[in-house]
């Protein structure tokens, strides 16, 4: 088992707890309130802006073209992939990026994005290792959610779930 596989194996109990959380249980059975989803989308927007800065830092400090391309692909993945769906939901709720971009992050999100930005300042490997768990965990959790509750495809939450469950999460991690 390689290092990343070992990290995943060690994280599975935590990821399973996330999968079994009330938020995801309600999302998969279609009982998550629109207000809760709206709050999540706003929080996720604030988080993703900071997450994108981690990759921008990597681009700025890349020492070779391979590293530059890698961080650019991460930034594009966050901005174009997740970002497009996020903007659709904001529009659904009558919100724009401009209206929410100055809101404060939740303390947990701020702590994690601050950690990732600090790791990015330490170097490229540190940046990669700090940001990788987010992408790995979302891919694993949401693929399992779709496996155990395929009816989520027929809910308002499907565009979000589809993005997170997409194989592109594994590809970007590779």
Write up what this structure looks like.
This protein is mainly α and 174 residues long. The chain has helices at 3-19, 22-29, 34-61, 65-92, 97-100, 107-122, 124-148, 158-165, 168-173. It is globular and about 45 Å long. The two termini are 15 Å apart. 20% of the residues are buried.
Furnish the topology, listing elements before pairings.
Layout: H1 3-19, H2 22-29, H3 34-61, H4 65-92, H5 97-100, H6 107-122, H7 124-148, H8 158-165, H9 168-173
Helix pairs in contact: 1-7, 3-4, 3-6, 4-8, 6-7, 7-8
Q: How helical, in percent, are the residues?
A: over 70%
SSE class: mainly alpha
Helix and strand pattern: HHHHHHHHH
Strand content: under 5%
Number of helices: 9
Largest sheet: none
Question: Low-confidence parts lasting 5 or more residues at pLDDT below 50?
Answer: none
Strand runs, count: 0
**What is the 3D shape?**
globular
Give the integer mean of the pLDDT values. Answer: 89
Q: Name the quaternary structure.
A: single chain
Radius of gyration: 16 Å
* Alpha-carbon distance between the two ends: 15 Å
Summarize the entry for a quick read.
By secondary structure, the chain is mainly α. 80% of the residues lie in helices and 0% in strands. The chain is globular, with a radius of gyration of 16 Å.
Keywords:
single chain; 174 residues; mainly alpha; 80% helix; 0% strand; globular
């Amino acid at each position: 088992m390689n290092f990343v596989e070992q990290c995943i194996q060690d994280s599975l109990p935590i990821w399973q707890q996330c999968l079994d959380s009330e938020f995801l249980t309600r999302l998969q059975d279609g009982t998550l309130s629109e207000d809760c989803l709206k709050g999540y989308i706003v929080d996720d927007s604030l988080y993703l802006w900071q997450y994108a800065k981690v990759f921008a830092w990597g681009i700025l400090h890349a020492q070779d073209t391979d590293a530059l391309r890698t961080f650019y692909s991460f930034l594009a993945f966050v901005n174009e992939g997740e970002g497009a769906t996020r903007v659709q939901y904001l529009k659904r709720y009558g919100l724009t990026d401009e209206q929410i971009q100055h809101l404060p992050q939740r303390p947990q999100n701020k702590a994690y994005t601050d950690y990732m930005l600090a790791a990015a300042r330490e170097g490229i490997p540190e940046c990669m290792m700090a940001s990788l768990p987010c992408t790995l965990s979302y891919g694993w959790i949401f693929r399992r959610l779709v496996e155990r509750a395929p009816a989520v495809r027929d809910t308002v939450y499907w565009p979000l779930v589809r993005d997170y469950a997409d194989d592109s999460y594994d590809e970007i991690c590779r």
